[in-house]
Amino acid sequence: MIETLKCLHLLFVLGLLGTVLYSLFLFVTSKGRIPSTPTPCIWALASGALITGTLLVHPRHFTFHTPWIQAAFVLLGIFFGGMLLLQTVKNKKAVATLWIALLIILVFMTHDAVSKSMLFINI
What we know:
The chain has 123 residues and is mostly helical. The protein is 74% helix and 0% strand. It has helices spanning 2-29, 40-56, 67-88, 92-115. Helix 3 (67-88) packs antiparallel against helix 4 (92-115).
């Protein structure tokens, strides 16, 4: 069961990373003609990653007080906030900047999860 959850979690996270990168690519190459809001697919992948990641914490013998797990939840909260902000912003430069920021947040979360340490903070 744990391996299935881990596989699903990886699929959700990699799908989310790829979808955000593809959305940024489409927005930049189409000169803003593509809708600048997150698609339902991005919302579903981010929610799936959150749920499966939460379900993996205790079975993998971690706690919610582990620094890199706390960082992942904080960064995912910022990611969700950025997606909400992306739905309200109309300026094309701000939209592109937000897409890049969301991609960077996902890269930091992936790095922290793979290395089981935080990129900039050593606790």
